[in-house]
Amino acid sequence: MLITGASGGIGRAISRVFAAVGWHVGIHYGRDTAAAETTLRQVVKCGGTGTLYQADIRRSDDIERMIEDWRRCVPITSAFICNAGIAESGLVVRHAEHVWNEVIDTNLTGTFRCLRAMAPVLLNDGGGSIVVIGSHTGFHGAVGQAAYATSKAGLIGLVKTAAWEWGAQNIRINLLLPGWQKTRLTEGIFPEDTGWLDHALGRPASLDEMARTVLHLAQLRDVSGQVWSCDSRHL
């Protein structure tokens, strides 16, 4: 299993869960080598094995090189996880265009680039699973999150289209909404104890339960083109 954005909190949790049940984990990162090495240490501590891959998902040639290196390391691939992303805040009327472009290029177009490079690998291997990490914000928007919400909304159409195009070749692709997780991306905006009024259960999603859901979804053989929400909010 190769996961993009594995140096962050969500990617690290997913990496640990896959490692704990025996998967070799490809740990992609963009710039933070130290954080990626921390993920690798945790993968090993869980009893698994892993390999680090640096790539800028805004560059197609970087992604293609990463996939080629992964292919040499793991001849048969059964799962990819597209998790890499960034967040920037800004009201619509004040959003700097270069910031907007960077978020869209990373979260939406970057995922498109990854899928375009990953699909031929799975096609060659007779199928497999891709899980794309989305966001509840992509369905409902959020004040100050125009670029982020738009990038995540775009993933819905991308995943559903890819599911139709690749289904005949036994490639399953699904979108998973991880819910609020305490990571670097949510520093300063993570709701506190009174911030869960829109959650039926009155609490956020567990990081470990979310990661186990990704593992479960990646192993399902008859589900594709679906949106899985890991918390108790209504879509």
Give the topology, please:
Elements: E1 2-3, H1 9-20, E2 24-29, H2 33-45, E3 49-54, H3 60-73, E4 79-82, H4 97-124, E5 128-133, H5 137-140, H6 146-166, E6 171-177, H7 207-219, E7 227-229
Helix pairs in contact: 1-2, 1-7, 3-4, 4-6
Description:
- The chain has 235 residues and is α/β, with parallel strands linked by helices.
- The chain has a single domain, classed as NAD(P)-binding Rossmann-like Domain (Rossmann fold).
- The chain is built from seven helices and seven strands; from the N terminus they run βαβαβαβαβααβαβ.
- It has helices at residues 9-20, 33-45, 60-73, 97-124, 137-140, 146-166, 207-219, and strands spanning 2-3, 24-29, 49-54, 79-82, 128-133, 171-177, 227-229.
- The chain has a seven-stranded parallel β-sheet, with helices on both faces.
- The longest helix is centred in the middle third of the chain and has 28 residues, at 97-124.
- It is globular and about 45 Å long.
- The model has no long low-confidence stretch (mean pLDDT 92).
